[in-house]
Amino acid sequence: MNKTIIINISGVIFHIEEDAYQLLKSYMDDIKRHFGSYKDNFEIVSDIESRIAEMLSELLLTENKQVIVVADVNNVTQRMGKPADFETGEEEDYDLSGNSETPLPRKLFRDAEDRFIGGVCAGIAHYFDIDAKWVRIAFILMFIFYGFGLLTYALLWIVMPKAKTRTEKMEMKGEKINLQAFQKNIEEELNAVKSNFKNVRENVPALHKLGSFIRDVFEGLFNFLGNSGKMVFKFIGICLMVFIGILLTVAFVFLMVFLGYAGNTDIATIFPLNIINEPLRPILFICSFLVIVVPLLALLFLLLRLVFNSKTISRSVSFGLATLWILAVAVGVFCIAKNATEFKEEASYSESLTLKANSANTYILKLGDERTVQENISGDGLGAKVITIAGSDRDFDTPNNLDFELKISEGDFPILSKTYAARGSNFNQALKNAHQIDYYYHQKDSILTFDYRFGLKGASLWRSQKVDIKLQIPINSTLLIEKRMANRLFRYELDNCIDEEASDDSLIPVKVTKNGFSCNKTLEAIEKQKKYNTEHEIEEEVSDTVLF
Fold it and tell me: Which of the residue ranges 18-22, 62-66, 184-188 would you say has the lowest mean pLDDT?
């Protein structure tokens, strides 16, 4: 049973056996005596202690133990070397240059001692073990020929840390971190100081002042940008947090509103809510809320941590939020898939009505301004029955597939055919949905007025309902078609028959012939065609009618 004590090496706490502690203390005393005559001996000893702490941590982690023993201390001191080894001239046993058959890994730092501006080029040169002048030339060429050398340099200056400690400088050059390497590094620094002092005396002082001024300007600029960037980042982060807070509040209010009105008939007619079956609405509302809110909360917590440098939530809470979001997505997808089965099959039914004819064989076709108008239904000998339905605009946002088609009738009376179609989970349900369509027209003498859209009865759900209106007109009839209605019936075929200044409620005459429908061209259209024929040397006569 050995006695253990707790020690602090370079800020790291270790449990160490008493014998091992005495051995390590003796080793550190030798190092302090050896480097005691150096000017910066405290910094040197601190760097060595940091390296020893790093090596001991690696040993404990590798061997999966908690207490340092004598063998661990011997291992570390053997790798670091002892002051007596090179005090007695035995440094030849150590590779002071840091070179070996397997090159030591290098770390990327800025070399502040071999710099022109920020030491970026020198740091890159050390990392790739090349001369720094070639890296500087490469940056100059990139700036001259490609224009991004300066920006790249600036970004690397911000990203690359500066080699401050002696250990970092040695790691930058790929040198072994032991006592011999520390000794060699110190001697090189002393020689460099002497050489620089000599160069200062020999070279022109103004040149060095210029280089120092450039370095100071760039360092001040980047320090200013760094501090300003932190302030801007915090300001943007706070603004984003306020915005996210507003979004979360709005999302919560909307959830409460939708849950409160989930079964209300008023909200049931609003698209796209009228797609969803009533039992699924609350579930989808909650899932949609969680899918939106959980990422917003995660972003809010992340911003709090980045801006104020504080841990806002634990790992278990983060895991719980992630699980909740995944569950909400899964349940939402399931509900959507279940609701999609309501569009599986399609069914339709048709009805035909014979309209009243008139002696002049003239019919005026109009598009109603209201969604619901009157319809004439023939009675059984009791005359015409007129049904009036009150209009409603609450379902105006629902997709409304209404198609008009004008055909030539072989009989003497106009015929109106209406085909209603819808989708459902099966044929019977689809047919039932088709019967939920409301569409009306109104005939008054020779005037036929058609609804411009159809409606759904009560709180019926939207199931891709559509209506096809086919109007068959007898031959030798004359149609006076309102411009808005003409655009629904013929699209662009009547362009040459419509005056550009005509209003939407103006009437366009159309003749019904056995060859089709025809209309008279406008004078402007005739002149335009004549001009085209002249320019292209076309000799055919310009017709004053359009047949389609």
Answer: 184-188
Average per-residue pLDDT for the chain: 76
User: What token pair was written down for 438?
Assistant: 């409301």
pLDDT class of 182 with cuts at 50, 70, 90: low
Is 60 exceeded by the pLDDT of residue 263?
no
> Could you tell me if 338 and 422 are in contact, meaning their C-beta atoms sit under 8 angstroms apart?
no
How far is residue 300's CA from residue 296's CA, in Å, rounded to a whole number? 6
The C-alpha angle 170, 175, 179, rounded to 5 degrees, equals 80
Nearest Cα to Cα of residue 546 among 496, 487, 480: 496
Cα–Cα dist 273/115, whole Å: 67
417 closest CA partner among 392, 465, 450, 460: 450
Using the predicted structure, report yes or no on whether residue 237 has a pLDDT greater than 70: yes
The number of helices, as runs of H, and strands, as runs of E, in the chain is 16, 18
Q: Which of 422, 424, 396 is nearest to 269 (CA)?
A: 396
Q: Which residue has the tokens 């809320």?
A: 289
- The CA distance from 221 to 453, in Å, is 67
